[in-house]
Amino acid sequence: MSKEKQYQIDGNSEDAHIIHLKHQVKVQYDEKYDYYLKSPIKKFFSKIFMFFGVGIFKLIHFFHFNLKVKNKKILKNLRKQKTAFITIANHCLIFDSTMSVATTFPKTTYLPTVEPTMKIPFVRFILRAGNIMPIPLNLKGLVKFKNDCNEVLKNGKVLHYFPEGALWPYYGKLREFKSGAFRFAVDANAPILPYCFYFRERKGIWKLLGKKPLVTLEILQPLYPNTNLAKKDAIQELLERSHAAMKEVLDLHPYDNPQYNEIESKLHEDTNTTL
């Protein structure tokens, strides 16, 4: 994809898409689709796929991004509790989903994504084997999707969300959050485990292997819903607390991507116009 096309948004908000998916197959995701794998055979093959897939992706993460994961002990302690939790991350890399899932592994992680992603020829079968869940565009399908997400958590699995919504490649700032992940957390009384992706300057031999910055994933302390609040307030409070915790970390590791200057200026102008 050319840079001219990549760094353009299709709307006037921070969750507008930078990357646009084409060549979609005609497949319907509705109330008949199992977003959460229930077939023992499908689960078995998914586990086999993930065992080998995670190993391959970890090699890619190291050699292409020199990925470093900080605070692994926090995740290890949470996994020991054998309870469900929800991981969230800023959406700034094409590979941040595989990095998140590989980090949480061997805990089974389901990752909701926009429906068009699951309509890419051939790729959609790989994504399905990797427990990727399309977020359906029709109402009945959306109800089934939400029920299946609740079932994922009831069975002690992990949901991974990018609450910013759209992917903005190599964007170094934190955007506003949508409420979906936090609603599931409050409903299931499950903790939010924030993953923060930020960038490092290439040094030494890594300068010879690429131009894009290297990547660090920092795991923060889990954040639990406030059970003393009404549901609506608890969702918003958990969202704001999660955003503040992640922003504090990301602000310590600034990365200014000049290719977003025009987009930021446009969004700033639109905000001032509405005010």
Describe this structure in words.
The protein is an alpha/beta fold. The chain contains 9 helices and 7 strands, in the order H-H-E-H-E-H-E-H-E-H-E-H-E-E-H-H. A 7-stranded mixed sheet has the order 1-7-6-2-5-3-4, sandwiched between helices. The chain starts with a helix and ends with a helix.
What characteristics describe this protein?
disordered N terminus, 275 residues, 41% helix, 7-stranded mixed β-sheet, alpha/beta
Give the SSE layout.
Elements: H1 3-6, H2 40-65, E1 68-70, H3 72-80, E2 85-89, H4 96-104, E3 109-114, H5 123-129, E4 132-135, H6 139-154, E5 158-161, H7 180-188, E6 192-200, E7 214-219, H8 231-250, H9 261-274
Parallel strand pairs: 1-7, 2-5, 2-6, 3-4, 3-5
Antiparallel strand pairs: 6-7
